[in-house]
Design brief:
The chain is mostly helical and 216 residues long. It is built from nine helices and no strands. The chain is 67% helix and 0% strand. The N and C termini lie far apart (116 Å).
Length: 216
């Protein structure tokens, strides 16, 4: 007896395709990635494609989270100032001899300026934001605010040292603060040029000797 062919087995009904879950972005992590890129390349040399690749976010996501490229740059600079300021604020507040305070401030600054996976990045304010300050009033105001804030912190530091007798009565806290700030800017630029840390530390030691006195 010949059996009838049953034909090909029936295919199961096609299941509806599931859409992948949208990627969850962490804004603070993405902002940190953008900050690293802006510090390394500057504003003009950093494209939206660069930022998209660095953060893992497409352009619409970047715009939605941070606004346009300029807004992201400003947010990155604000983040840098907050982090750099926090690392130095405690040293400015603590009670310690003047020379020790200055040594710790400059050492902390060097740690910031010499950091970076691909090499020293220097200071965002001096190396990157100062260039944009020429044509952007908002960034210029932020840069001036940062410079003024540093000058005032150093001036208070020298003023307290004079009151404690670590400096002579004739010492000018404002003038000394400007020397200290200028030293900060110098090591920021030189670190970007990959000057060796030992050479930067020699500059710092010479500046501290001038401000405090070689024998103190």
């Amino acid at each position: 007896m010949v059996q009838k062919s049953k034909g090909p087995p029936a295919m199961p009904p096609e299941q509806p395709k599931r859409r992948g879950r949208p990627r969850a972005y962490e804004p603070e992590v993405a902002l940190g990635k953008a900050l690293d890129l802006f510090r390394r390349q500057g504003f003009a040399a950093t494209s939206l494609d660069d930022l998209s690749e660095a953060t893992g976010m497409n352009r619409p996501s970047l715009y939605g989270a941070f606004g346009d490229k300029r807004e992201l740059y400003i947010k990155s600079y604000q983040r840098y100032r907050e982090e750099a300021g926090a690392s130095l604020a405690m040293i400015f507040r603590e009670e310690m001899p003047l020379r020790q305070r200055l040594e710790r401030i400059f050492a902390s600054a060097l740690n910031i300026y010499l950091s970076g996976e691909t090499g020293p990045r220097g200071c965002f304010t001096v190396v990157t934001a100062a260039s944009e300050a020429v044509g952007d009033p908002e960034i210029r105001a932020m840069v001036l605010d940062g410079l003024t804030e540093l000058d005032k912190a150093f001036a208070n530091c020298f003023r307290r040292a004079r009151e404690k007798g670590e400096l002579p009565e004739s010492a000018d806290p404002v003038a000394l603060a400007q020397i200290a700030s200028a030293t900060i800017h110098t090591i920021a630029i030189r670190s970007r040029a990959r000057v060796a840390r030992k050479d930067l530390e020699a500059i710092v030691k010479g500046a501290i000797d001038v401000m405090v006195g070689a024998g103190s």
